[in-house]
Amino acid sequence: GGGGAAGQSGNAGPPAPERVLFPPTFSVSEIKNKQRRHFMFLRWKQQQRKEKLAAKKKRRKEREALGDKAPPKAVPKTIENQRVYDETTVDPNDEEVAFDEATDEFAPYFNRQTVPKILITTSDRPRGRTVRFCEQLATVIPNSHVYYRRGLALKRIIPQCIARDFTDLIVINEDRKIPNGLVLSHLPDGPTAHFRMSSVRLRKEIKRKGKEPTEHVPEVILNNFTTRLGHSIGRMFASLFPHDPQFIGRQVATFHNQRDYIFFRFHRYIFKSEKKVGIQELGPRFTLKLRSLQKGTFDSKFGEYEWIHKRREMDTSRRKFHL
Amino acid sequence: SPQIVWSMLGNRQFCSYKMTTKTQNFCRNEYNLTGLCNRSSCPLANSQYATIREEKGRCYLYMKTIERAAFPRRLWERVLLNKNYEKALEQIDENLIYWPRFIRHKCKQRFTKITQYLIRIRKLTLKRQRKLVPLRRKIERREKRREEKALIAAQLDNAIEKELLERLKQDTYGDIYNFPIHAFDKALQQQGAESESESDAEKEEEDDEDVDKREFVEAEDSDLSDFEDMDKLETSSEEEQEEEEEVEKKASHSKSKGKTPLKGPARRKRPYIEIEYEEETEPTTKTKAA
Q1: Does B182 touch chain A (CB under 8 A)?
Q2: Is residue A74 a part of any domain in this protein?
Q3: How many domains does chain A divide into?
Q4: What is the DSSP string of A224-283?
Q5: For A118-170, what is each residue's pLDDT tens digit?
Q6: Quick one: average pLDDT of A234-251?
Q7: Range of the domain at A47
Q8: Which residues contact B45 (CB under 8 A, 6 or more apart)?
């Protein structure tokens, strides 16, 4: 055993034998010589691979031998499978949730009493990229207006917006010439959500894009908003768009939540047949990550926060997501 | 004496406070009045000198006289100036009385400039301050990587396509999209439902209504009976009716557009009653034969 190991560790060059037996007490990391250690490691790796292959073959043979009685194939573990169960997951039949939704700030929108009117603005002194992004966003969201912020304080803009019947305010924060943050505020005293925005692609940077988005009201798809928090954020997004989409336009805006990242895409679709649909991406795309949700309108100092992302407490587990 | 100092430092030898640029020489000495390196502005080369300096928002007048040239510790005399601008100017005048015009003038200029920038600082602090949040490199990298993985896991195109097809099935689009098979299947299902309701309705009628009406119903053609039933089905949604009508229209057009060639017996959309008619031509042939 020990002698064999010593003999093997002595060989640096010769090709690996067919069956290399590593005695159980032997560890590749104990060899001090780097070259030899590397060599032994490679051999060990090869052996592992062979064993794995053999095990696979054996399993496959067993499976075939059993035929119908074979146990079902094991489902591979994904992060979505292994996700820590969140207590606040919304059950579709939950009455409490339904009641909450009927009485929260978006109820007038969902009852079709208000038509969304959106104001898009930026932080001070926006650079070209941000300005173009704002314009494109304005084409995507119907009934939206872009106004430049010439050093105005948000707290003073908000009463003016309310007076002029705006329902939502979007502020795109810019840093080093790229947009990197989004504040979405529902105006008549509604919640304010602060997102971190990343990978913003303007229309010209999207490959294989279609023509410009038209004036039709797009449909909205909200995917994967499972928890209570996610639900409220989803409703916030839905309230940006008018309630009755014009299907002639064949445009769809998607907010897809995956592992706490919200991906926004804007497509034009066409049904080629009953089971096949083609989509073509127009419009800008970006991803958002929620940083905080505030109960009232934008107020950084005295606002009441419903949810803040606290890195130390919330990022401890890789399988835990909040949206 | 100051002339010697100047001839050494100012012109020929090295002065550590002197900064030269292409066009000008600057003096980095804190007690310098103008900031330039001149014979009249050099605090080292003038035995009688004065400056204005501000500390924590308050302005002081510093003075240096020949008498104290031997005592470096007591060299600079400091006077706190009034917060009021005019009163401070008077103070300067009163302290620097009988001093050279140049120093007096430059002191007042410097004081004015300092007060102006102090006012500006106070105004700016009232406005919104930009908060600089430091980026944490490890976290930024982690977030970026996780975003990429999430994007791959999301399979956005597939998800969107699935959702759109779901919506098509749920009939949210209504009548815009007409796919023959889809509508056909739907119509079949509806016909199945309708035929059940028809048979129920007929049974009810036979029990409740008169004999004459029953004869009416039996004698009429299958098409017309269907129309009657369609009227009875007004309570059901209009969509079903419209779809039925459309199905009827589309069925006639579907031969050109449809995907699968719809065969004869499969084309029967409604419960088809085979009625055999006896033809009247037979007796004529018989008479002919006879």
Answers
A1: yes
A2: no
A3: 2
A4: ---BHHHHHHHHHHHTTS-SS--TTT-EEEEEEEETTEEEEEEEEEEESSSS-EEEEEEE
A5: 999 998 888 899 999 999 999 999 889 998 888 788 778 888 888 888 888 99
A6: 87
A7: 28-60
A8: B2, B3, B5, B6, B9, B10, B39
Across the range A216-244, mean pLDDT stands at 88
Residue A204 and residue A275 share a domain? yes
Q: Hey, what amino acid is at B52? A: I
Question: Could you give the 3-state DSSP secondary structure of residue B99?
Answer: coil
- Rounded to whole angstroms, the Cα distance separating A67 from A51 reads 24
Predicted local confidence at residue B260, as pLDDT:
43
Give chain B positions within 8 Å (CB) of A289: 143, 147
In A72-104, which positions are buried (b, 16+ CB within 10 angstroms) versus exposed (e)? eeeeeeeeeeeeeebeeebeeeeeebeeebeee
From A94, A85, A127, A149, select the one nearest A321 (Cα to Cα): A85
pLDDT digits (tens, 9 = 90+) for A52-66: 999 999 988 888 888
> Of B6, B52, B73, which is closest to residue B18 (Cα–Cα)?
B6
Residue type, A41: F
Position A169 in a domain: yes
Residue A296 resides in a domain: yes
Q: How many other CB atoms sit within 10 Å of the CB of residue B160?
A: 21
**CA atoms within 13 Å, Cβ hemisphere of B54:** 18
In angstroms, rounded to a whole number, what is the distance separating the alpha carbons of residues A300 and A303? 6
In a shared domain, residues A49 and A158: no
Please identify every stretch of chain B with a pLDDT value under 70, giving residue numbers as ranges.
Answer: 179-190, 192-274, 276-290
CA angle A232, A233, A236 (to 5 degrees): 90
Say yes or no to pLDDT of A244 above 60. Answer: yes
Whether A194 contacts A294, CB under 8 Å: yes
Query: For the stretch B107-142, what's the b/e string if a residue is b when 16 or more beta carbons lie within 10 angstroms of its beta carbon?
Result: bbebbeebbeeeeeeeeeeeeeeeeeeeeeeeeeee
Same domain, A186 and A246: yes
- What CATH number has the domain bearing residue A254? 3.40.50.10480
Q: Which of A79, A199, A219 has its CB closest to that of B153?
A: A79
* Residues paired with A47 in a beta bridge: none
Do residue A45 and residue A151 come from a single domain? no
Residues A168 and A272 in one domain: yes
Dist CA B113 CA B194 (whole Å): 93
Q: Which domains does chain B have, with CATH numbers?
A: 2-126 (3.30.390.110)
Whether B166 and chain A come into contact, CB under 8 Å, resolves to no
Could you read off the pLDDT of B37-74 as tens digits, one per residue? 989 999 999 999 999 999 998 999 999 999 998 999 99
Q: Are residues A46 and A192 in the same domain?
A: no
Both tokens of A214, joined, read 């038209």
**Residue of B138, B145, B160 for testing the chain A interface, max A β-carbons within 10 Å:** B160
Contact B160 A254 (CB under 8 A): yes
Q: Bridge-partner residues for B26, per DSSP? A: B19, B36
A14 found inside a domain: no
Q: Could you tell me if A220 and A270 lie in one domain?
A: yes
CB-based contact A258 B154, cutoff 8 Å: yes
CB contact under 8 A, B163 and A221: yes
Q: Are residues A117 and A197 in the same domain?
A: yes
**Last residue of some domain: A10, A39, A60?**
A60
Give buried/exposed letters for A11-40 (b at 16+ CB in 10 A, else e): eeeeeeeeeeeeeeebebeebeeeebeebb
